């Protein structure tokens, strides 16, 4: 009887594991703003190998320099989305380490 219970538990755990593996999280960069032309940036942030955190403001357009590569982003996050990894919005193969972004909300410009 005990062996039958273990087999049922093992089967249930295998099914749960398979279900969890089939669930993928899709990052939605559009929830944090949009890519922008680098010429429209109001400031430039250099991402060095030791950069781990960057603070930006709501509605700010920032140009990021990573070695000889660059890109710009206009931050306009959805309500309650005030932090993200820069890696989520950076073009592929630009960043080689995680960089955390904190978006500061300007109460005068938003009702969040």
Q: Secondary-structure blueprint of this entry?
A:
Elements: H1 2-22, E1 33-36, E2 43-46, E3 53-57, E4 61-66, E5 69-75, E6 83-85, H2 86-89, E7 100-104
Parallel strand pairs: 2-4, 3-7
Antiparallel strand pairs: 1-5, 4-5, 6-7
Task: Tell how many strands the DSSP assignment holds.
Answer: 7
Strand content: 25-35%
- What would the principal axes of the Cα set say about the shape? globular
CATH class of the domain at 29-104: Mainly Beta
What is the CATH homologous superfamily assignment of the domain at 29-104?
Heavy-metal resistance protein CzcE
Order of helices and strands: HEEEEEEHE
Q: Poorly predicted ranges (pLDDT <50, ≥5 residues)?
A: none
Mean of residue pLDDT values: 81
Distance between the termini: 58 Å
Helix content: 10-25%
Characterize the biggest β-sheet: 4 strands, mixed
Count of separate DSSP helical elements: 2
CATH architecture descriptor text of the domain at 29-104 = Sandwich
Radius of gyration: 21 Å
Q: How is the CATH topology of the domain at 29-104 named?
A: Immunoglobulin-like
């Amino acid at each position: 009887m005990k062996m039958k219970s273990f087999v049922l538990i093992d089967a249930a755990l295998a099914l749960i594991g398979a279900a969890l593996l089939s669930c993928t999280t899709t990052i939605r960069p559009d929830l944090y703003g949009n890519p922008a032309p680098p010429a429209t940036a109001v400031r430039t942030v250099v991402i060095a190998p030791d950069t781990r955190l960057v603070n930006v403001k709501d509605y700010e357009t920032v140009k990021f320099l990573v070695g000889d590569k660059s890109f710009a982003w206009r931050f306009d996050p959805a309500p309650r989305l005030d932090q993200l990894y820069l890696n989520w919005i950076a073009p592929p193969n630009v960043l080689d380490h995680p960089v955390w972004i904190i978006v500061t909300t300007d109460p005068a410009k938003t009702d969040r």
